[in-house]
From TrEMBL:
InterPro entries: FAD-bd, FAD-dep_Monooxygenase_BioMet, FAD/NAD-bd_sf
UniProt keywords, alphabetically: Monooxygenase, Oxidoreductase
SUPFAM superfamilies: FAD/NAD(P)-binding domain (SSF51905)
Species: Saccharopolyspora taberi
Taxonomic classification: Bacteria, Bacillati, Actinomycetota, Actinomycetes, Pseudonocardiales
Keyword Plastid attributed: no
Residue intervals of the FAD-binding domain: 163-198
Pfam families documented for this protein: FAD_binding_3
Protein name, entry field: FAD-binding domain-containing protein
Amino acid sequence: MLHRADLLDVLRSAVPEDALHAGIEVREVHTDGTVVHAGGVSSADLVVGADGIRSITRRTVFPHAPAPRYAGYRTWRMIAPPRQVRSVETWGKGDRFGYAPLPDGRVYCYAVVRGPEGASGDIHALRRRFADWHDPIPALLDSVADDVLLGHDSYELPDLPSFVSGRVALLGDAAHAMTPNLGQGGCQALEDAVVLGAAGDLGAYDRARRPRAQMIVRRSRRVGVVAHWTSPVAVAARNTAMRLAPGSALIRSMEPVLNWTP
């Protein structure tokens, strides 16, 4: 488990200083490689739209593409002080809580809570919601300060017909935003970058990446549906099936996601 800020530091250190122009708002991207932005207009042989789930690139290059859709739950992320734990995700009746150790001993935690889009909350609400969950979940929440809590509604992007158009390629969440249920959002963006860097043309990039990324979007969606069941009968059946399934079954189910080579 790697903290996202540490990953960004690694990537940032590999980029030449004069290649980054921070604080420049991109307003339009055209398939001929023209980019309209706050600093003027630029043109390039290749434009990579890696600008996230609300991608300006996607909206201007594919104006009729469907908007991201809300998955029905909000994800809260936080970092707790060092504690001896192993990686665990617990499913309840409509809610989930997970935690995993970071290399420096701190604990990455996340709570996934069903609710309406845009629902508010704070660490106190999470403590109340998970107060009767198993140890060390209440203790982890008690150790977290309110100012380190990040809350985001969970969305996914309906399938696009292509990740490329003209001289423009979409990458990461701009192309295939997914729910966080498999922990693959950032991972799939890295895979995109590797394939795009090696591709002989944009068509090859699209053919290599779109089927796989959209498959993982669907798998992540299915996991979220089952994890957030609220029917007592469905939850009981799910929990019984998971208790009876061997640990190797979970590993095998993740092989199509994790066993990837460029």
